[in-house]
Amino acid sequence: MENLESLKRTILDEIKTADSLKNLDDIRVANMGKKGRLTEMMKTLSSLSLEEKIALGKQLNLVKSEVENAILAQKNILEEKELNAKLAAEKIDITLPVRPETQGRIHPVSKIYEEVVAIFGQMGFDVVNGPDIEDQFHNFNALNMPANHPARQMQDTFYINNDPSKPFDMDQAFVMRTHTSGMQIRTMEKQQPPIRIIAPGRTYRSDYDATHTPMFHQVEGLVIDKNITMAHLKGCLYDFMKAFFELDELPVRYRPSYFPFTEPSAEMDIGCLKTKTELKIGAGTDWLEVLGCGMVHPNVLRAGGINPDEYQGFAFGLGIDRLAMLKYGIPDLRTFFESDVRWLKHYGFTPLDFSSLTGGLSNNGGLTR
Ligand code: PHE
By the 8 A CB rule, do 254 and 230 touch? Predict the structure, then answer.
């Protein structure tokens, strides 16, 4: 009996110090397997007297079940340990960025475009697109600028011969669209009021200096419905400017102006502070022109197939590049189109920042400067 008792203690000690499932299984086999120590002891029972058999058999069974329980308990401990070790080894820090730094950059023009769409989108405007090469009807005539109208000289137009087999004919020539206003007509041709659209796109004029490039970007806006007034125009553009420059207060003013396709026409200025080194929007006593706008001229509504006695509308044209220069402090427009990656790295935006009114428009945190 002494023997059995000390064997039991040895086995239980071994089980407790087993440090792997494999090790534990080896201990099990060594004691309870076919040739295991306890199994061998069981075999000796047959040579004993009945009484001894009963007594030792009972004890052996007790020891066996104690050993089995100890093995099971240790197995649980080791399994949990192994699982924890595995989890610790496979641990991923999900707060780490996927990649240390994104390589590409979003061009400021694309960024401003996204911002403008985010704001007008929330006001319920649809986005429409049209051709860069335009006919004179949509670019001029339908916008109340018939041939020889002096206003055609306001814009230095690129003309394109639309039939290379014939000599250039000024009246038939296509133009690189000089503004996005042709989209007013194209929209009216397709859609009955109520109309609420913006039309972003490339526009072209023969002009080149620090604030003019032959290709630049505009966003046209058009709203047509019953009882639309200049108050709607003013409110809409004021809300837009505040959202765009991310300011709660922004001084604005509307100056009388002239466009053949709007009557009355206006230009919108925003308040700013100009110093030799700085331009601060929303403060100070200086003014910056930001867009042209007005009430859609009755002739334009007629050209688009809409009855001006029934419907009114307002329209506006924003220069995207100009807005980018103002908002992000980029001094020379020509650099926008030089495709210099160093410039883009400096002025561009990370592709993972999306513009939205709720999540942040320009995500200044994402600005690479
Ligand atoms: N098309 C005008 C321009 O390019 C801007 C404008 C659009 C003005 C719509 C009034 C209404 O200067």
Answer: no
DSSP state of 356: B
Ligand 1 center to 278 CA (angstroms)? 28
Q: Is the CB of 316 under 6 A from ligand 1?
A: yes
Name the nearest CA neighbour of 281 among 241, 320, 317. Answer: 241
Question: pLDDT, tens digit, for every residue of 234-265?
Answer: 999 999 999 999 999 999 999 999 999 999 99
Domain ranges of the chain: 2-89, 106-132+181-347
Query: Cα–chain-centroid distance for residue 231?
Result: 33
pLDDT digits (tens, 9 = 90+) for 269-323: 999 998 888 888 888 889 989 999 999 999 999 999 999 999 999 999 999 998 9
What's the predicted TM-score (pTM) here? 0.71
| 160, containing H or E segment | strand 159-160
**Fold of the 106-132+181-347 domain:** BirA Bifunctional Protein; domain 2 (3.30.930)
Query: Nearest C-alpha to atom 9 of ligand 1 is from which residue?
Result: 316
Count of residues in the chain: 369
Closest CA to 234 of 208, 257, 253: 253
